[in-house]
Amino acid sequence: MDDAIAVHDLVVDRGGRRVLDGISCRVPRGAVTGLLGPSGSGKTTFMRAVVGVQLVAGGTVTVLGQPAGTPALRHRVGYLTQAPSVYADLTVRENARYFAALFGRGRAEADRAISDVGLAEAAGQLVGTLSGGQRSRASLACALVGEPELVILDEPTVGQDPVLRADLWARFHAMAAAGTTLLVSSHVMDEAARCDRLLLIRQGRLIADDSPAAIRAAAGVDDLDEAFLRLIRAGEATPTSTDATDARETA
Amino acid sequence: MNPRILAATTGRILRQLRHDRRTIALLVVVPSVLLTLVYFMYADQPTRPGQPTTFDRIALVMLGIFPFVIMFLVTSIAMLRERTSGTLERLLTTPLGKLDLLFGYGIAFGLAAAVQAAVAAAVAYWIFDLETAGSIGLVIGIAVLDAVLGVALGLLCSAFARTEFQAVQFLPVVVIPQLLLCGLFVARDQMAGWLQALSDAFPLSYAIEALQEVGAHAEPTGRMWRDVAVVFGAVVLALVLAAATLRRRSG
């Protein structure tokens, strides 16, 4: 019950292809969990399943104690899609106020969410006239404005300059310290080190589920990038138990 | 449905419209320009004594058809934009109910149509001397109902369109047959039986008949109220079907 998300044997097929193949994991409350993996590994699909907008072929996803997609959860979960999903023909402030209103929040919360992502000066600007990085921060403000207990962020720091990225990560950790659970996806490994826990997905399978320190220790290297590489190689080299039996029998 | 969320959604759609000055200008001006064309087309046509002039007959029907066609198109594109920009998927992860979104569109575009119909009716009555036995208020009221019918059918059809190309194709599929058979070109009772049956199945036929009742009778007739009730029923049916086709979970 201490877990914000509990996933058991999750299987998802998209377009006739198995995208997630039997994933089981837990995401603790009040922490920043990183979802790492190369492009096309199934990160977005995993997040969609947690939010409850993904049709799943098998397994269970439990979010804050309820099945994913339960109507009551829509008040408690915030979701940032990978492509910025805000109205280009509204200003940043109008977007934030609209999403605030959906969660029963007011103008003060909307303004705070805008300044939290560093867009206070652009608040009156149409989203369509913003740069790509600004636009994705406007989208982030709309995901945070409802002050949800669980925040699912699909690549929130892509295209941001290093200073802003550091600011956003500081913001994520402040939220976690205040009790919010964050699941943040990324395909850049240098962000992995900033997470409290890591889930590494590759080709629809979970390769690692641990703290950054434990993953470094298990792989015997300090560099997380190198550690992941070793884990992947080790996974490919070690035969599964049935293969091992077969091998022995052949021998 | 939630009144707060419905009001926020309606306001958001109107704000998007407000930022698009050119669309507002087109919405307000185009029907009046087209009425001007119709006026001069029929300016030299002889009129039989005791009969309404050809302009009066056609302009009255046009006042109902413009808002229907224009709002159908505007809504199809607006809803498709929600889908392709990712805002629809995001909205469906928030506390917003499907009917909040659909009725939000109905109310917002209905209000826009009220302005459009009032301007077009003012031009028809005061510049081109349109004469109807019934009141201008009823004509505008029915024109707004026609606009809402266009919105409701547009929302329903957009569920079956994945691209802009497909969405635009629904105009000839859904709108033009209703225009051809609504009684404007050939009186409904002079059509072949199977065409009459089709015409009876199309909601626009009732909307046009209601306008013709206002044109011919000083007081609202029972037939006019029946027609209005049929159109209203078609609006509710289309919105409920549209809600049923809006899926929170997708593959």
Task: Describe the structure in brief.
Chain A: InterPro entries: AAA+_ATPase, ABC_transporter-like_ATP-bd, ABC_transporter-like_CS, P-loop_NTPase. Chain A is an alpha/beta fold.
Order of helices and strands of chain A: EEEHEEEHHHEHEEEHHH
Tell me the domain tally of chain B: 1
- Describe the strand arrangement of the main beta sheet of chain A, using strand numbers: 6-7-8-3-9-10
Task: Please identify the oligomeric state.
Answer: heterodimer
The assigned structural class of chain B equals mainly alpha
The share of residues in helices of chain B is: over 70%
Q: What is the strand tally of chain A?
A: 10
Number of strands of chain B: 0
* Alpha carbon gyration radius of chain A: 19 Å
Structural description of this entry:
The complex is a heterodimer of chains A (251) and B (251). Chain A is an alpha/beta fold and 251 residues long. Chain A has a domain at 85-147. Chain A has helices at residues 43-51, 92-102, 107-116, 132-144, 162-177, 212-219, 224-237, 241-250; strands at residues 3-14, 17-28, 32-36, 58-63, 66-67, 77-80, 150-154, 181-186, 197-202, 205-210. In chain A, the strands form two sheets. In chain A, strands 6-7-8-3-9-10 form a six-stranded mixed sheet, with helices on both faces. In chain A, strands 2-1-4-5 form a four-stranded antiparallel sheet, with helices on one face. In chain A, a hairpin with a 2-residue loop joins β4 and β5. The radius of gyration of chain A is 19 Å and the shape is globular. With 251 residues, chain B is mostly helical. Chain B is 76% helix and 0% strand. Chain B contains ten helices and no strands. Chain B is globular, with a radius of gyration of 19 Å. The mean pLDDT of chain B is 92. Chains A and B meet through α2 of A and α1 and α4 of B. Chain B: The chain crosses the membrane at residues 24-43, 58-80, 101-128, 134-156, 168-187, 228-246. Chain B: One of its GO terms (molecular function) is ABC-type transporter activity.
